[in-house]
């Protein structure tokens, strides 16, 4: 496969460039009978949409989704679901220099050398705009997981630059422009982000994504472990540079007597494992952290070269996120959902008979 | 796929349990014409082998590999290469309790619930012994990469528990039992590991894996990015809990002006990217760090339950690594090699014509 | 995969129902740099289009294709190419009975039992209308093969019902409504088809598809042989019931001394093999025949049951092809092109170095 | 994938050359809990084994299978099952000329050009000996299908050269060296085969393979239709040149009113469909015919060329089947079983909930 398909049984194949006519995806393998309409998908798309606060890009996109197939009389039919999102705010402008220069920290250089050509308008395929299709597909996965297992997936920002964000409550997440599970630090974060923007620079972020009510038994060792596929899924998001499962890098200094979660008749006594042992879900909450690098498009002038290898100076002006991590929460939720539904179907394929005899799974 | 195949064009399908008759793999897609014999593979197997110092498990396995197919007159033929490693030191013993109990931090619980059964002898399929097959396959990938691009892959331990290991020189790595790029701290590390072992406990580790002389252009966005596949590959190794590419979690506090590597006519001015931009290799050294949790099998008694849900106390005696991370370096090298060869073949498939026109790749 | 993706390196994922808003596909893995616009695709779509003669369905569809991504400044970029074809002639009508009844010879019964639901409008996903997406994707594959190897692919009808059609010349194929390589029998065929239509019945057909100028070396034994993949590709077309490669079923009565094509310094002395030996292309013309069953939708009343298992009588009136085989030629060409491009990329991946040293391939 | 893996959820990856040390396979995705030992596999291997009558090759191979993994305490564990069959009768002999010459009708020419090298000993990977691994894997699939659905798979020879073999009874199949469902023509067939062998020539064959008690709903349109995958599976067997499903090429002259099987409250009134409609199983018996070309290795001298393009004369002496089709029945059964188990698991993955509500499937 050429790399634009995610999953093995619930597959999502995406397409679309930042400034092309449209982007979207085909979902193949969605079980039939799931109630679905555009509104189910639009909700998550609206959470990811640009232009919703002054701290993110001011590009204006309605991101309106159209279901082209696979749904009949309000329910999925088991055939491919095609989703279409038209681009509407591709500003016509002079791309002159961008077409011939490689922006530092960007995919310009590598796309050019890989393909021998590139769509330079707005980053083309390498634009974070591509994640709209992921979020749309993920919304379907989330709905199926919720209805089948009661699975709840949530992501939130735990750090922006030097600012660590204390966890206060899940219910705050949707009420601030930072996807922060926090209420008391919001003003402080607003000021921090304003200062970053004014400095013509950008900053990184750290997020956490969790899934509750995941059945035990998901994951296919030895390679397609659940944690391996989560790492793959999160690292495939633009700008992600690190992924941790459970205790993550803190495991390095832990002792075995501390890290290994004891079991009791009422359940596990801890969750350093992040809900995964031996690459298979334990039934506990799945937890992962990931790091997002600072946006590469900044107004501060930087050294680079053009396609002839000549030195140039580049400063990117325009509608860019000073912290791209602030819009990553819905994308991470979508990716985790895509991993989980795929493994749920895989588990069902191989172990259908086991499942019905297993109390943990039967509890669904 | 049921999860035991790695790669898409250079595929490795592994089999084998810790205490079964044998383990091994089939490699499909190895280009023809590569000079290959058992010795090429044995070298890396010997580096991974147990029982080589007092700091690792004392199980004695020759780990002797037999090539069953795919090689004729000393060269690969393009047909599947099957590798066989017989197990020789499966001690006969009474497994009584282990068969019915779930060891904390182990895959016992999840295998039991996933499959409704498990081979409890030495951890069965979930044993780190499984990685011998990976190392064997990786040796072939390393040889092809070396001969085709001059690619050099090396992994080393950068931290054991609280002990950070300073980088001194690559040449030290093979000369101490810790895969440390260090000479001056070895005595200290010996003492540290002795103390861990005597405390009947275990400890985590952090490693770094690097690949030099990687051609530009490897990686298939948007999902099968090179970094995403490296994260998947490293996280699929037993006990790995975190993966970083380049600056990793340090990116969170970096500014865009710091993180984004500038380009100059003579090359990149830095490598925070870890050799990957937009999911595609830049031609720079690829760098990744990963965290390994402390061994779960420890002699300290711990609480758990049996398959009936009754509480039990478990202490694991026997031949276990006090720091499983100390044997992970050859495995990480193998996994990185498997990612790189697979993407090299994928790049060749899609962009054969581009490649010959691209100076960076042509330089191979 | 859930079954709607064709190929491994040049993948085509299709979507769309007969009476839904649109159908189309995503092509992933098309090499960059191929000149491409809508007109390249429209030509083949027009050849497949319904309503072009009185011998095929009178449904009127413009089948106008829109390229949504993957093409920039008139050339492919190496990123996914999405193609969209809006449905325009979905007549609103009362589907009442069709929704609850299973038409003999149709997929109604099996879709209902497989998915527990079905889009009954015009056959939904099981409609031959789905093949428009294949033809669109195939047009791109054909263009690349033509430009890369000079490959020419052509399909034609060799029999309709009892009427065997003598081969006269390739140039006749595009000049009659039967895709017949024949000029002298056309009037006879017109009369035959008129009589079939008037009898309220339908009839089967036999076609032949050929590819000239195929490089030697395509095909991946032991399973993904070129002939096996051609059989899969042709049998995946609606209504196909049989596939032959080369001598096909005539091989049964042949002697080895007759069937095995001798080699001479100037080439093969025959082509009973159909251009494939050991599952790998020989460089000769690839030849395959296939059988298409008579259209199941006929106006003659037939016995069936409804979804409650009650007996019903069904006669299908409306816009149906009396011989669905008459429109199959462009579809077969597309499928053969998709097989060949996929195997060309696979060959390039694994044997790039061999290829340049091989006279037969180098002759491209 | 490089072509040596069959299936998507129940995958079989095979390896091995005719005169290498061994052949075998890894099965990944076998559901856990299936009772399995070597004897289950050996039975089918013995049916395929060479040297069992004077009408087949006189090579003597025990074809003894060893299970290396994936089975514990007599049951499958859900982890990969590796099967090993050592070659024992690779006669040492002078291969001199064969190494440099291309036998007509053989894969010598194509392997040489594809890979730039080939293992010429006994045909290497292209030898029909490779099918032993398929038969071994198929035996496991057959057992699971039999226990899960009561599925019975049987193949038999319906024609040898000009000799059509009348169907008399299934029970005769195992009682003659021709896998003929016939008792009265056996003496005639013996004489016929003797005459072929004495003429230093070979002859083709036609076989039929059937599966009874297949659940409704197997098959994944639009590409991975059950019939398309059966065509792929059968055409992937050495020497197969044609495949028919149900009425096959007879469909060409049929009318729609004849071909389309009517439905009644007690079931289908016919089976021209061969148990498959719209690419999905109907629950009826699946029927397929296939053609096998005459053996290419014959003692009659034939024209060919060597690797330098020089003309040579080749006559193959030694231990060859005068009609390779006579040993194909167990192989076809294995391939059909591998298709069915894979699609059964795929159906279970996507439609687990549908299945339990579907009378036809519930009847299993």
Automatic annotation (TrEMBL), chains A, B, C, D:
GO molecular function, one term: chorismate synthase activity
Keyword field contains Iron-sulfur: no
Protein's UniProt name: Chorismate synthase
The gene coding this protein: aroC
Pathway info: Metabolic intermediate biosynthesis; chorismate biosynthesis; chorismate from D-erythrose 4-phosphate and phosphoenolpyruvate: step 7/7
Essential cofactor(s): FMNH2
CC cofactor note: Reduced FMN (FMNH(2)).
Keyword flag Cell membrane: no
Protein species of origin: Uruburuella testudinis
Keywords (A to Z) from UniProt: Amino-acid biosynthesis, Aromatic amino acid biosynthesis, FAD, Flavoprotein, FMN, Lyase, NADP
